[in-house]
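Input/output pair, single chain:
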Amino acid sequence: MQETRSIMIAEDDSDDRLLLETAFKETGIEINLVFAQNGVDLLKILTEKEQAFYPRLILLDLNMPKKDGREALKELKQHPTLKRIPVIVFTTTKSEAEITRCYDLGANTYVVKPDSYSDLLKVVSHLKEYWFETASVALRS
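Output:
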C-alpha cells in the first residue's frame, strides 16, 4: 500500500517545506511527501478526496494561517479513523505550556525545529528510523 510510505506535512513556510523535502531525500528515505499549507488544507486532503489519503504519519506545524496546528490536531484526534495516524508536532515553539497542551490534544511526539540544516538531517534520520523501521502503526481500517 503506497500510503504507508507517505508523510503528510502541514507547513505554511515554503522555505521550511523545501528544507524538509531536501532533508528527506538526502537521508535516503523513499517516501511520498504530501504538503498542506494550513490546517484547513490538511484536513481537506485527509478527508475529502474520493479515496481519503491515509499517511504513515503527519508532521504538523503549530503556527499556520486559516486553521492552526492546535485546532487541526484536536480535530484529527477526534476523527474516528484519522485519530490513529501518528502526529508529530514540528514547530519553533519551545514553551513547556505549549508542549503540554499538544500532548493533551493527542500529539504523539513534539519536536522543536532545529536551527541548522545538519541538525534537521539528524531529526529526519531519527524520524525515519523510529517511525518507519521501529514503530508499528495502525493502518486504515
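The radius of gyration is 14 Å. Residues 89 and 110 are 5 Å apart (CA to CA).
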